[in-house]
């Protein structure tokens, strides 16, 4: 499995617009993409303008396929202008714990 963790620092005052675009993208990714196993949107408790995306895919090709979906493209069209800074961690998933 392949994982990316995207740390996104938003421009001040753009949090709501970002979430309005990102939350449906995350939901659609898990619901509609067989290669997307997790897409969590996480807000930093101390800095509300700092959002983390935790995404798990079958492999790197599944991430490439994700970037071709309409829900990804629609969200990126909105969120690109809201981002002050973004960093990406790329990792291999060693274990996924099952849901309870």
TrEMBL record:
<dbReference type="InterPro" id="IPR007138">
    <property type="entry name" value="ABM_dom"/>
</dbReference>
<dbReference type="InterPro" id="IPR050744">
    <property type="entry name" value="AI-2_Isomerase_LsrG"/>
</dbReference>
<dbReference type="Pfam" id="PF03992">
    <property type="entry name" value="ABM"/>
</dbReference>
<keyword id="KW-0560">Oxidoreductase</keyword>
<dbReference type="GO" id="GO:0004497">
    <property type="term" value="F:monooxygenase activity"/>
</dbReference>
<dbReference type="GO" id="GO:0005829">
    <property type="term" value="C:cytosol"/>
</dbReference>
<feature type="domain" description="ABM">
    <location>
        <begin position="2"/>
        <end position="93"/>
    </location>
</feature>
<dbReference type="InterPro" id="IPR011008">
    <property type="entry name" value="Dimeric_a/b-barrel"/>
</dbReference>
<protein>
    <submittedName>
        <fullName>Antibiotic biosynthesis monooxygenase</fullName>
    </submittedName>
</protein>
<keyword id="KW-0503">Monooxygenase</keyword>
């Amino acid at each position: 499995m392949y994982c990316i963790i995207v740390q996104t620092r938003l421009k001040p005052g753009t949090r709501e617009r970002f979430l309005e675009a990102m939350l449906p993208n995350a939901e659609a990714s898990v619901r509609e993409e067989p290669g997307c196993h997790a897409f969590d949107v996480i807000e930093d408790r101390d800095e509300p303008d700092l959002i983390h995306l935790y995404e798990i895919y079958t492999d790197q090709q599944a991430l490439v396929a994700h970037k071709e979906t309409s829900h990804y493209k629609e969200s990126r069209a909105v969120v690109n202008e809201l981002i002050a800074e973004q960093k990406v961690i790329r990792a291999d998933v060693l274990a996924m714990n099952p849901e309870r």
